[in-house]
Specification:
The structure is a homodimer of 169-residue chains. With 169 residues, chain A is α+β, with helices and mostly antiparallel strands. Chain A has helices at residues 20-38, 44-56, 62-71, 78-90, 132-144, 161-166, and strands spanning 94-97, 102-105, 116-120, 126-129, 148-159. In chain A, 39% of the residues are buried. Bound molecules: zinc ion (4 copies). Chain A binds a DNA duplex (30 and 30 nucleotides) through residues 41, 43, 45-46, 61-63, 75-80, 82-83, 101.
DNA sequence: ATTGATATGTTATTCTATTACCCGTAACAA
DNA sequence: TTGTTACGGGTAATAGAATAACATATCAAT
């Protein structure tokens, strides 16, 4: 894609470097634990899709994910990917990025929850940011109109710290 | 679609009743004036797409718009609709609703601008809300991460005042 | 063994969006 | 008048994203 410059999203979470291997394993373990708790089935396909998302730390389209699954013999048709993504997003283990028709792993998997996203147009990295401040602001706006919010889509596109430097505008 | 209950989005703007005929004419006139000012060409197809969006006060998919254009002999292939929509969105006369893959007319056409949207899942009405409070909140969050925002997607789905009553939850 | 619930496999289709190429006209210069 | 350029539009083909529908498998609980 537009990966024409340096910073590797693979190494970024919240745009900071970290122990990526541990990050993946830890998150998968946490998700597996929550599934066990709640009687959810983290099946091979679902687990693998989560791993694929975690490994990139960026938003992936369903068909990109499907390509990987196909290479690994885990499924080759769209519904395979979409069903796994539905499971993951429904339970708050991944999020859909509306502005990109793509999906990203949740970085603090908990109950089904809305989130805010910072999406770098330079390197594709996606960071999950606290949703509350912006959501609260929207709530106030909505309240004034008599509108009851059920779900929010809060996404910001721009440049991450790494790309701000390399793309000096 | 899901238009199974009473309130007609056609009669709502910001979820309040208003003189719809004047609303459409006024907005088209304002847009025409701005185009004249800035040397933009509000061609028949572009004007008609704007009118179609204004007439509904809800988000329309490109193909819904294309259906209308086709009936009127103004074009029958996808690029006709997408080109007009690109013109309108590029100049701030309409907005794309990311969460719906759809488009809505701007209710205060000015320079190219981001906006926040309140989308009623009951009747489909879309209201353009002030973007600043929520955007400012996101800005603060982003700043803390060293992230520079270029564009925001702020959308809230829920129930408008009319639908809150008819759908007593 | 039979049933019911859940997860997968597979095909086809729908919906959304873009690319590429060609045509006609307006504006402007040679 | 004749290029030449810029722009908008017509059309066909294709790409990309998502779902519908139906068949099959798996497994636990009777
Ligand atoms: Zn999350
Ligand atoms: Zn970046
Ligand atoms: Zn607007
Ligand atoms: Zn409503």
């Amino acid at each position: 894609m537009t990966d024409t410059h340096a910073p590797r999203p693979t190494d970024a979470i919240g745009f900071a470097s970290h122990d990526h291997h541990a990050c993946i394993e830890g998150t998968v373990a946490a998700v597996a634990a929550r599934c066990a708790d709640e009687g959810l089935h983290l099946t091979p396909v679902r687990r693998r899709v989560l791993e694929i998302l975690l490994a990139r730390h960026r938003a992936l389209g369903a068909y990109e994910i499907l390509d990987v699954l196909r290479d690994e013999g885990l499924g080759s048709q769209p519904p395979v990917a979409y069903r796994a993504l539905e499971f993951l997003t429904k339970h708050g283990f991944a999020h859909r990025i509306e502005g990109m028709n793509a999906f990203a792993a949740c970085t603090h998997p908990g109950q089904d929850h809305d989130a805010a996203f910072l999406i770098c147009t330079g390197c594709g990295a996606v960071a999950e940011a606290p949703v509350e401040p912006a959501r609260a602001a929207l709530e106030r706006t909505a309240e004034a109109a008599g509108f009851t919010i059920a779900r929010t889509v809060l996404e910001a596109e721009g440049l991450c710290p790494n790309c701000s430097q390399s793309h000096p505008s």
